């Protein structure tokens, strides 16, 4: 009888421990099987200044230096500029001839190290989606700096710890 009583106590204790353990186990959710896309619905028109192509997020230019803008959209943009014009084209005419620099010239002018040249590029903290299109009036750049990403920022453009920030004259 004592053996039976001990066995029942052990069985109850085992059941009790199993129940407690199940209560503390982490909850697992089924894996996500669909792709998630974050859409950027903002059109990114091609920008042409003289014979040079750029994009709005890759342009450093004083707006007072612009004399005239021609905007092409839809079929007109496709006819005149081909597939490059699918999101529209803005053709800028400047008031006077200004020398505009590409990224390698900015690196040279501001003595950016080889390591810095490999980082993601931003202008005033805003990501440049196509840095190869960057076009700048060097007089509008205050400094070029390597900055760490804020780990608490709601969004990041890269998993690098740092990025190259071009600070413009305000």
Reconstruct the topology from this structure.
Layout: H1 2-24, E1 46-49, E2 52-55, E3 59-60, E4 66-72, H2 74-81, E5 89-94, H3 103-109, H4 114-117, E6 121-123, E7 126-127, E8 135-136, E9 141-148, E10 162-168
Parallel strand pairs: 1-5, 3-8, 6-10
Antiparallel strand pairs: 1-2, 4-5, 6-7, 9-10
Structure summary:
This protein is α/β, with parallel strands linked by helices and 170 residues long. It contains four helices and ten strands, in the order H-E-E-E-E-H-E-H-H-E-E-E-E-E.
How does this model look, in words?
This protein is an alpha/beta fold and 170 residues long. The chain has one domain (46-168). Helix content is 25%, strand content 26%. It is built from four helices and ten strands, in the order H-E-E-E-E-H-E-H-H-E-E-E-E-E. The protein has helices at residues 2-24, 74-81, 103-109, 114-117, and strands spanning 46-49, 52-55, 59-60, 66-72, 89-94, 121-123, 126-127, 135-136, 141-148, 162-168. Strands 2-1-5-4 form a four-stranded mixed β-sheet. A hairpin with a 2-residue loop joins strand 6 and strand 7. The longest helix is centred in the first third of the chain and has 23 residues, at 2-24. The radius of gyration is 29 Å and the shape is globular. The model is unreliable at 1-40 (pLDDT under 50).
Spatial strand arrangement across the major sheet = 2-1-5-4
| Spans of at least 5 consecutive residues with low confidence | 1-40
Name the shape in a single word: globular
Please give the count of helices.
Answer: 4
Q: What order do the helices and strands follow?
A: HEEEEHEHHEEEEE
Q: Taking all residues together, what is the mean pLDDT? A: 79
Termini gap: 91 Å
User: How would you sum up the major sheet?
Assistant: 4 strands, mixed
Helix/strand-derived category reads alpha/beta
As a whole number of angstroms, the C-alpha radius of gyration is 29 Å
Counting DSSP E segments of at least 2 residues, the number of strands comes to 10
- Strand-residue proportion: 25-35%
